[in-house]
Amino acid sequence: MTKTWNHNSARPVLGRAPLDQPEFLPMSKKEMEKLGWDELDILFVTGDSYVDHPSFAASLLGRWLVAHGYRVGIVAQPRWDTPDDLLVMGRPRLFASVSAGAIDSMLAHYTAFRKKRHDDAYTPGGKAGSRPNRATIVYSNLVRSAFPQLPVVIGGIEASLRRITHYDFWTDKLRRSILLDSKADCVVYGMGEYAMLHLAHVLDQYGETSGTPFSYIAQEVRGIAYMGSREDLPPQAKIVEIPSHEAIEADAKQLMTATLTLERHVQEADGWAIQPVGKRAVLLAPPALPLSEEEMDELYGLPYAKTQHPAYKDTIPCVAMMTTSITTHRGCGGGCSFCSLALHQGRRIASRSKESIMREVESLTHNQRFNGSISDVGGPSANMWQAHCKANPEKCKRKSCMHPKVCSQFAVNQAEGIHLLRDIQKIKGIKNVRVASGVRYDLAQKEETALRAYTMEFTGGQLKVAPEHICDSVLHSMRKPGLASFENFLAAFKKYSEQAGKEQYVIPYLMSAFPGCTDNHMHELGNWLRSRGWQPQQVQCFIPTPGTVATAAYYAGIDEKGNKIAVARTDAERLRQHHILMPSVGRKGSKASRGNRGAYAAKGSEKQSGKKGGSQNRNGQSKGKQQTKRGGSQKPAQRRSNTSGQGKTSPFSINNR
């Protein structure tokens, strides 16, 4: 066993001698035998099918652990009425890691109006129903049944956002920390590379039968939460007090207090948090620190197969979306009140080096499945690559780096991002490069040369942006820029598109039934769209996903300052707002969206398809990322027929004025 020090990150790197990376992580005893492994150290149980791509935590964390000397196997989408599927590779030596997958299992199954979805992009053949509701809880109990006394570590977006008391939209009730229902030993929240490695290292030292209390094992591990008592907190630690579960049950306003407190805990990243639950307490270690550039390069430079495991006969739909996308960074400075990204990935940006990204693109050109077009180069927001805070984030009191305006301490050289895209474009075998993950248009306007380049060079006919609404009071509650910023962006986009001689389209994300949004606000949005000849084909109805500030506002009926607000709580009220922009949704006999979670797009002109670098209908990011950011009911991009009665150009065409 080795313990070395990474001087660039000032973080201990724990592990054993690296193992050779397999073509795929094993899913069967036969595959283990081919690798010469007689047992596993760690078993991953996931609600997704196994695609060996860094967009999937089981693949990314699994290969990371193999690189540090631990033998990892994967059980993907096991049956949940028997533990038999978990037994195929035997009992793991250290622990089992459980996740619902890249998307919350409840969002995977239900639309904003609680209708069953009919597909699942993370399952062979796209078939729905291959994971249970509340998959983290179900799988954890399966592990307990299969392997008594084995430590169980839960993680992923579903577990991470349920680490303290949370509102559950699907039952309209408060629920305790997921630790209690899952009976897991701990939850790894946020980005889990070092938490998982540290847990593996400590358990490797003590052994699963040592009897050492988990609270002792975990005291030095960042980014985890577990059940204990106040006495288990480290001496002299900075303590953040979260209202107890019972206090929140007694007073709905306390959920807002708890949510804002947890948000500060993540941002400051220098203390422990505690939430009492009955006679016990949820103890939350300080969040994981962002990976250094060197660590990001190591992680994303591992030899992922970039495709599905060969055991699957049917195609897994998400594979096509991921094959042509490149992740440059993680984290988002936006801090939007409905978005879980800042709570899960954090507001601090962790970026890869240009050299690492270029190597991945070079490798991609040798893939026989690659057609020469890169659908996306980016992250949560494409133009935040290499961004950093010039101030001390631990002392920053802002809830967003972008709201009410872009912070002067948020430093990002967007021109360097453009140089990266241009250099990728020059690589032999690359036909075109697009930015499909979208850009922060308020940030883009801070650097005109970058906005010009995004528009003229790297928009493949359509550019996704997220105004969400046009009423400033609603936008303020969302922590989004005001209407003036969006209209300035549209004017610039039109100007640069015309200069490039390109017919281009803005794909705006819009939202209904947001807490504080009234019918009048939706009518104002509808009038604004109609005045521009815009007709949305999909609007997202707000879903109160666990952990966000907007969800606390929905449940308590208050804004962040405690002021009472209007909330569309019933399905009838939510549908009424939605019908203002989408009259057919939810009505009998309508052909409304079946709930596919891909980003919606306006229907583009048929003229556009013949243009160089034509419209990109495929979402270059994984759907799990879209869910993490938005949590709304969406459907795939569509194209407008010339006989639709709307003319021969898209109603969302920026040149159609």
From TrEMBL:
Residue span of region Disordered: 578-657
Spans through the membrane: none
Keyword Transmembrane found: no
Protein's UniProt keywords contain Plastid: no
Residues involved in [4Fe-4S] cluster binding: C332, C336, C339
Obligatory cofactor(s): [4Fe-4S] cluster
Biased composition regions of type Polar residues, renumbered to the chain: 617-657
Keywords, ordered alphabetically: 4Fe-4S, Iron, Iron-sulfur, Metal-binding, S-adenosyl-L-methionine
Pfam families assigned to the protein according to its UniProt record, in alphabetical order: Radical_SAM_N
InterPro entries: Elp3/MiaA/NifB-like_rSAM, Methylthiotransferase_CS, rSAM, rSAM_horseshoe, rSAM_sf, UPF0313, UPF0313_N
MF GO annotations: 4 iron, 4 sulfur cluster binding; catalytic activity; iron ion binding
Cofactor notes: Binds 1 [4Fe-4S] cluster. The cluster is coordinated with 3 cysteines and an exchangeable S-adenosyl-L-methionine.
Span of domain Radical SAM core: 318-587
Family: Belongs to the UPF0313 family.
Alphabetical list of NCBIfam families matching this protein: SAM_YgiQ
Descriptive protein name: Radical SAM protein
Organism: Halodesulfovibrio spirochaetisodalis
